[in-house]
Amino acid sequence: LQASMSWGNKRNRTYINIYSESDARNQPLQQDLSDSDKLQLSQAGDDPLAAITSGIQNTTFTNSQILYTSIDSLGYSDVLVFTTDSSATLFRVTFSYVGAGKGDYIEDGFEATGKKYKWVNPETVGGETIHQGNYAPVALLAAPKKNQMLTAGHEMTREKAITNGTRQHQIKTEGAWSNKDLNTFSSIDNADNQGWAGKMQYSFTRTRKDSTDGRSNNKTLKSVLAYEYNHQNFSSIERFREVEFNRNWNLGAVQPFGALQMAKTEVQWGREQSGILRFGGEWLSIQGWGEGIKGQTHIQWRNKRGFQALVQASLLNTAGAAPSRFVRHKSEISKSVRKMRFYYRDEHERNLFFLNSSDSLSALSYQFYDWETGVGTADTLKKNITLYYRNRFENRLDDSALRLASIADQYGVTARWNANPDRRLALFVSNRRLRVLNTEAISTEPENTLVTRLEYFWRYKNGFLQSTTFYETGSGLEQRKEYVYLEVQPGQGNFVWVDYNQNGIKELNEFEVALYAYEANYIRSSIQSNEYIRTYTNQVNQSLSIQPDRLIKKRTGWRKWVAKLSAQSTIRLDRKNTSDDGDTRFNPLAYDEKDTSLLSLNGLMRHVVFINKSNPVFNAECTYQESGGKNLLSNGFETRSEQFLQTAARYTWKKTWTIQAEWQQGTKRAASDFLNGRNYVLETQQVQPVLTWQPGNTKRINLKTQYADKRNTEGVERAVIQRLGLEAILSDVKKGSLQCEVNYYKITYNGPSNNSLAFDMLEGLNAGNNMTWAISVQRRIAKNLQLNLNYSGRKPENIPTIHAGGLQLRAFF
Questions:
Q1: Exposed end of the chain (fewer CB within 10 Å): N or C?
Q2: CA-CA distance, 391 to 374, in Å (whole number)?
């Protein structure tokens, strides 16, 4: 619940805001609470770890979950172990992270349906049991929570005109009350639920209107005085402080746990065109932490001769539980000389943390100095280039003093060329070298990183030729991935499970991309691992189009036929590898399927030639395409690639009859070093004619045929598919549409049907005679309501008929 109200005029404004959210105690989300669970929660107070329940539940065999059975091991009873034995006593187990050395189980990889855990035998030292795991078979009970806040404030503004300017006084006051209950089942620990906060701010602004060369250059003097108090139990709904508030005050990861007081004063003077000077101080006090005083300044200045300067600096001193001294500054100075710009920028931080109010430094102390200088053309020019050099020094604690630990050098060039609408170029090249001088003080490995990015757009003769190029290289860290398959509502996923070995267990090599929408009831979810690999990346995108009709004016003779042609070429590659070899690292076209340094690859190369593109009577196209991908999973590599040559043509006569024909010849490859049945090379030839009768915009009938011949060159498998299909579509813009389709397949196949190869070759069907049918009804039942009804069926040979249906109601607002 949220409500706001405000009223006032130019001089006064008052507002009130109310917010409340509360979990439903009797309708918990993703958990079913028993009476004993509710009793345990009522006795837990605000401690989230005090309310736990057993994560072990008896269950029957199911292939959609990770299941465990109980055994005795090394003198310990009731040890849970993963099992797929349907005859065993089975448990569905929820494991929770309880901290290192507080549990007896650890993560143990993945199955197709989720993460596994295994028992780690505890050790006994001196009669004391030492646990070796960090997970336990328990479930944390989620307590219902309540969060409420009431805020009210008043703003008073008084403005008075003076000679050549104005004078303004403004006072802002705001108060807030919060009520945060972490467990509404329990009255324990409720003493800290409610808190309050208040803030007052006074500001004075004097503006003197002035002008220089007709430009506004007002002189402004502004001063601010503010005070804020937060009760120790006050809790905000959303974060209202700057993101780096804790870092700016050296609060670290420790959350303020006492009453907070904060005061601020600031004075600013300057002109809009010339620059400003701002300086001020802040005081912060937190009960139980201590207090800190910070002074800061901001200088910004420019003149007509092209000189600009920006300086920001601050000094922080804290005392109490965490004494520290934090000095930092950031500056940039630039000078424009005609069409050139010279600049220098730097950043420095020296942050000293002291132990127990002494002069001894803690390991958190650090210092760095980062500076950069460069020269380039002005940013406003159409042709812009900048050369720069950057250097960074890192100091870390070594033998009770800060000493130089690493040096990083970086140099590069950035360029932009926007000479005209037909030419655009952007180039970025950077090389960074990190040298580690003290391996005990800093754990980072030395590295040499090269980053390159090129973007180029080119157009010739009103688009007769048009090209777009993007190329980028870099380096970084790549996480090993694992996939699990999660079951969703039928038709809402992308994958289908095919139990090839008939053991009722969902295995990674038994999930295929669904060929029929109604059986797509699994999605694939990526789970990141904790293992990282140093990688080198490169990406390239290249497109080129040719449109002779943009160049040919007189379309007679041979020019008429050339104007009917057009072509489009596209290349996209994205690769990651572990080798820093020059050809492998920078050449995106270098590819070896057996290259173990190649972690991932996704690529597409497509060339299309069109005849009479978009012509309503006749058009044709010829396409050559290669695509592929390689991914590194925690188990190993998985590779897929496909290439084909395809021609298609369409001809319409008497405006009601259309014939389309498509011929395709291609090769599909699949390889995996950890999944069985995923290594094959499939060659395919197929033709698909379609005859269409469309007497108007509301009726269409399609007669479809297909002949496909598929062979596995790595074996003896061969499939021949013959299809005859009929499709009818009836539509009305105001009422809806009706679509019906029926297909007959005759398939001959000489190989086993219980593997991924057979699923691909047979297109999800079975050898022999197959029938498929589908009906889809879309009906508008009101101005803003639409009803969708879908039904589909399939009858493979020697298998019972498979029916699937769905109903959907949509509301449009």
A1: C
A2: 12
